[in-house]
Amino acid sequence: MPHQQTSLPIIDVSPLLITDSSASSQEETARQIHQACRDWGFFYVKNHGIPMKLQEELIDFSREFFAQPLENKMKIAMSKGGRAWRGYFPVGNELTSGKPDGKEGLYFGTEIDDDNHSKVRNKIPLHGRNQFPSIGKNDDEFRHVILTYMIAVENLGRLIMSGIARSLKLDVDFFDKNYFRNEPTCLFRIFNYPASFCQQQGNENLWGVGEHTDYGMLTILLQDDIGGLQVKTSKNEWIQAPSISNTFVCNIGDMLERMSGGYYRSTPHRVRNLSTTRDRLSFPFFLDPNWDAEVLPVPMEGVTDTNDNDDAEHRWDKTSVHTFHGTYGDYLLKKVSRVFPDLAQEQTIIGPGSY
């Protein structure tokens, strides 16, 4: 990592969005992505094509939802979402490394409203209908904003992954063809970090989300203007990743580390609301492999600096990403069940002691 750099790089991804961009400009973007993935595992993207109006509507509707009394929010509790695991959870119900987080949130995924869809018919977890909050002029207004945003960010994520493919000297559509196919696993969260949480007695030294890495392929994060995201450097130092207007923070997850044989590494990060008077909002979108895709190493021709040894002892959760074998769905179920163990037992998604 460059010694003098103490902030995450900001990458202009417009060459990936514009079909008639020159090959040289696309290669330069890929080079910057490569350097960011090697040095940090994190980077900002700008000129991404997602309208500010859409971002602002998402933030405004979300603030309105979380300002409601708890009993109103619990009308769409995750426990009412069945095996789709969609809906609202209150502060303290989500765990990171076995410890309750200081945040509440909404869980969404790709909307599947067809009961004959094979995943729904076969009762595959994390597939199905979303539970949408009734906020706005009519019941569908927030729903429309959420789904429009999810489609836009999925498209952006696919383009960023085309840049990552270039950065690894792969075909531009490598991840689309081999991992996303026609149905990537897309998970979207809206998190609210109450300002009151860290002010409560006993919570002064707690985090909204403790140290962790993301378990998927690519995370694309919109955050409000409060800040509080911190990223761990290769020197075990923590740096701030503040909000920068009209940018998204991107980070690679454990699956991309596994696919690249440790050449690109997922980076630990954590969150705390820096404000004592305002709640913090964040909007992570996770673009991950197809549920049924087998997670295998990608071709790394000419690359010798890989490390896919069992690194459990050096990881934040003492779990190596390089020892897993199976489909992404198998992997994801075990991970998510650790986050909501009670719900996992209630839905009999995973057996006792399996996580």
UniProtKB/TrEMBL annotation:
* One Pfam family it belongs to: DIOX_N
Instruction: Give the family per the record.
Output: Belongs to the iron/ascorbate-dependent oxidoreductase family.
Could you list this entry's UniProt keywords, alphabetically sorted: Iron, Metal-binding, Oxidoreductase
Q: Fe2OG dioxygenase domain location, by residue?
A: 183-289
Q: Which GO terms describe its molecular function?
A: metal ion binding; oxidoreductase activity
Fetch the InterPro entries from UniProt.
DIOX_N, IPNS-like_FE2OG_OXY, IPNS-like_sf, Iron_ascorbate_oxido_reductase, Oxoglu/Fe-dep_dioxygenase_dom
Organism from which the protein derives: Adineta steineri
Q: Which Gene3D superfamilies does the record cross-reference, listed alphabetically?
A: B-lactam Antibiotic, Isopenicillin N Synthase, Chain
| Protein name per UniProt | Fe2OG dioxygenase domain-containing protein
Q: Does the keyword Iron apply?
A: yes
Q: Which domain of life is it from?
A: Eukaryota
